[in-house]
Amino acid sequence: MSWTWADNWWGFVFIAIAGFLATDIWRWLGVVAGNRLDETSEALNWVRAVATALVAAVVAKLILFPTGTLEHSPAWLRVGAIAAGAAAFFAFGRRPPVGIATAIATLALGLWWLGF
Asked: What would the pLDDT profile of 22-64 be if each residue is shown by its tens digit?
């Protein structure tokens, strides 16, 4: 017996509803709750600190315990790319896109230079 979409449409509906319930409701609740938050509150400062710590942890994991092509790249190149990105970030008025682009470009050029 062959499978057709018309025979099992309810499975797709279930996936769509479950996906909506798992993600979009929380987004809307965040919007509603976020409108009532004071931007200078301690709770929001804590949320910012946790978000910053999570990003820093992911970056540190990529530098110290890389996978894929980065696993074969030298540690000095990974650390140098982050240092160049941080220097560009501060030199150009604390603009995240400048720091990120500089770090990526430094890493890409270093990998190209090393023959990766």
From this structure: 888 888 888 888 788 888 889 889 989 999 999 999 999 999 9
Polymer length of the chain: 116
For 24-66, where are the E strands, in sequence order? none
In angstroms, the CA 116 to CA 108 distance is 9
Q: Is the pTM of this model over 0.85?
A: no
Q: State both tokens at 64.
A: 């110290």
Closest to 111 in 3D by CA, of 56, 85, 74: 74
Q: DSSP label at 97?
A: H
Give, for 54, the enclosing helix (H) or strand (E).
helix 42-64
* Cα dihedral 19/52/96/42 (nearest 10): 100
